[in-house]
Amino acid sequence: MNSRSLVIFDAFNTLVTARRGSEGTFLAGLAEAGLEATASSLARLQAASEGFDHSAWSGSRESYVDWAVESLRMAGSAGVEPCIVPALEQLHQAPMIAMPDAVACVRRLRAVGFAIAVCSNWGWDLRADLESTGLVEEIDVFVPSAQAGFRKPHPQIYQSVLDIAGFAAGEAVFVGDNLKTDVLGPQSAGIRSVLVAPTAVDTFRGPRAASLAEVADLLIDGDGQSPRATRQN
Predict the structure, then answer these.
(1) How are beta strands 5-9 and 114-120 bridged, if at all?
(2) Whether the Cβ atoms of residue 86 and residue 145 lie closer than 8 Å to each other
(3) Residue ranges of domains in the chain, CATH in brackets
(4) pTM of the predicted structure, to 2 decimals
(5) 26 to each of 54, 86, 147, 171, 182, how far by Cα in Å?
(6) What is the DSSP-derived secondary structure letter of residue 55?
(7) pLDDT category, 232, cuts 50, 70, 90?
(8) C-alpha span between 231 and 212 (Å, rounded)
């Protein structure tokens, strides 16, 4: 890619969110699997899936979908908890819409020469799931955890993005809303990061943007040779 550097975005709650009226698809999937369908239960399962290595099932879409189906079928069995959220992402993904300023932010970054990637804990069909958002044409590389074989914050998923996009860690910056998976995780792989959060986070003193519009301002500002963010909490 003939770009000066790479900006890697998280997807959910950073670039996109669920279409109104579709927010409960994961809870419906839990109920269908005979599990407790509450926000607290879903949060517990999401935490159990963090950093999960499912590379044994990520060789093909068919293999991955079969694994997701079997995971929900065996949902009540011991040891299956880390598999449940990946299965929900594959089989119960809600339709997506772009977050405010998402399209404008990505277009601004591309216009000044940045390559754009999306890296997310997501099912195999990340690109297809974003087709209706107006973002797909602006993104160069899509790396869902389903295809990478590892879930954020496992360092291998971040390295996968760099390898596919053709950049070194020092030539990239990660942008996302989650401190653990979008800031600390990328940093463990040598990638700089920007936390997207409307207000300051007590435990974080690194670069922060209040909105995607501000992300573009932060990354474009500077010497024009590499992504950088200058705002501090």
Answers:
(1) parallel
(2) yes
(3) 5-18+97-220 (3.40.50.1000), 25-91 (no CATH)
(4) 0.92
(5) 20, 10, 20, 36, 22
(6) G
(7) very low
(8) 13
